[in-house]
Design goal:
Layout (H helix, E strand, L loop, with lengths): L5 H28 L7 H27 L2 E8 L3 E8 L2 E8 H16 L7 H8 L1
Antiparallel strand pairs: 1-2, 2-3
Length: 130
């Protein structure tokens, strides 16, 4: 049983996932730069702007963690799992994450940052129409 409240745990998980999103986007940026695309600039700008948005969010997560005395450290990794140490206000908890779950979460975040963040929410549509 975890002592960490859901909001704090979510922020700690963001500190795991967002750097991974940046690693993937950085690799993709290199691939596009070295690709035979005729017009690279739109792709490069999309990736660069997405990276800026992720970096901004990660900076906010780091501020939150520091302010609330929270830390996350990768402890161990193998083919199937990655273990993280969550330090929560003096308490230590070890959490094992299934690597495919991490990959899927990073993929979901990439979809969000590349596309979904630009889509109007249902709430916004209702306010504008009504």
């Amino acid at each position: 049983m975890t002592r960490i409240p859901e909001k704090d745990r979510d922020m700690m998980e963001q500190a795991i996932y967002l750097p991974m999103v940046l690693v993937v986007l950085n690799r993709d940026l290199s691939v596009v730069e070295n690709s035979p695309f005729k017009l690279k600039k739109p792709y490069l700008e999309l990736i660069e702007q997405t990276m800026k948005a992720v970096q901004k969010e990660l900076a906010q997560v780091k501020i939150y963690l520091k302010k609330n005395q929270l830390k996350v450290e990768e402890v161990k990794r193998d083919d199937a799992f990655t273990m993280f140490l969550f330090l929560y206000k003096g308490y230590e908890e070890y959490h094992n994450y299934f690597n495919p779950r991490i990959r899927n979460k990073v993929q979901d975040l990439m979809i969000h940052y590349l596309f979904k963040r630009f889509m109007p929410t249902l709430e916004t549509i209702e306010k504008e129409s009504g």
